[in-house]
Amino acid sequence: MPSLRLSAFLAAALASALAAPVLARDPYGYGNNGNTVLITPSGEVLDYVPERGSVIVARDQAGRKVLIDHFGNLVATEMPADVVYGRGQANSRYNPDNRYAPGNRYSNDYYPPAPSGGGYDDDDVVTAGIPDDTSIDRQDLGQPYPQATSRDPYASQQPNGLPRQPAQTFTTSGPAKPEITALQVFLDREGFSPGAIDGHMGQNVQKAIEAWQQKTGETLDTKNTDAIMERLRMNGGLPFTSYTITAADAAGPYVAEIPEDYSQKAMMPSMGYTSTTEMLAEKFHMDEGYLKAINPGVDFTVPGTTIKVVNLGQQNAGGKVAKILADKGRKQLFAYDADGQLIAAYPASIGSADTPSPSGTVTVERVAFNPGYTYNPKLNFKQGANDKVLNIPPGPNGPVGTVWIALSKPTYGIHGTPEPSKIGKTQSHGCIRLTNWDATELAKMVQPGVTVEFVD
Hints:
The protein is an alpha+beta fold. It has helices at 6-15, 81-84, 178-190, 203-216, 225-234, 247-251, 262-266, 276-283, 288-293, 436-443, and strands at 36-39, 56-59, 65-68, 74-80, 240-244, 306-310, 323-327, 332-336, 342-347, 349-350, 360-369, 373-375, 390-392, 403-407, 413-415, 432-433, 451-455. It has ten helices and 17 strands. It has a nine-stranded mixed sheet with strand order 9-8-7-17-11-14-15-16-10, sandwiched between helices. Strands 1-4-3-2 form a four-stranded antiparallel sheet.
């Protein structure tokens, strides 16, 4: 698939808005009684009015109103209609049949700089991130939920028609592609997690696509970027947005580093984040390296700095999970509701040759958010030279991340991870390991008694 530029995504989203007459109707302060037109940087007359919120209204050095997208790219300049009317196709460099061709404005920089906000009327700039969920009751691992009363009707359910391995194999080498990011954001919003969003078409993305198609009965054309952009526009907006780093973001608290040895972990006050970038990457479901790559030269430690992040939009996954299926072969976890409908799927690291996951059916016993971790070499795996019981403090970089969903088979559970970019690509110590954000989402939908079935 030809490489598409980020500005092309923005143009595709704008082009899907309702068409309007050539004269600007001044819906929110563009023109003067409709006697103006909007001229694109290529010299064309813009034949629609961008939706409110999709652009920023500013003024250029000549005092003319201009429309800027949320990444600082010029969309259009307001001009008097009697001066420019009829000049819409004058620029011979623009080729309407190939808007991504060299020389057209859509072939600009792959990742334009993050907006600074300087001089813009930024009332509509998205600066707020996805808010922290404060409704979670944090519990110790030893505090069980009340006994569940619901019945599990799915003791033998199998994944329907999905291959044991993804249909294709992929490499994550080469530059990240914003059209793949858009696909990942769409899947993430739908509740079919692609893992850490990184702009690459890896196996976690392919597995999410296959699960989404199984649920919906639709075929997702991954090469039809315009169609994916339209889906995004209808459910949360463009795949990228801006976020302003707060004083709390910069302050942390952060830890200098996370040691490998469990005895050293046990001596630390917490298993917290090591940097602002690590925290923000998890907040926006992103690979940390990708977050840095799309914000070159940015100092993430300075409050007030505006950065570019993915737009998580409105998350569709939700409801009450009645059955979980852990597919070892696909390295994927499926969540079903009481009607047997698939409501979410997550890439997972499930067991290893040395510490295999259990087979058959177990149940959820309890759920803990922000758990500590007790290492017992007689019950758990052997880590380094440690031969004593160790209590490791809580935190996102702890061995089980930010969530522990305990299972009825002792020492086994579904949990988060300190290394989200490795999920679905590596093995675990017998448990089901998800990204911290996926584990948190799942934990909000389960209760004790929910069936968890392992299939090979």
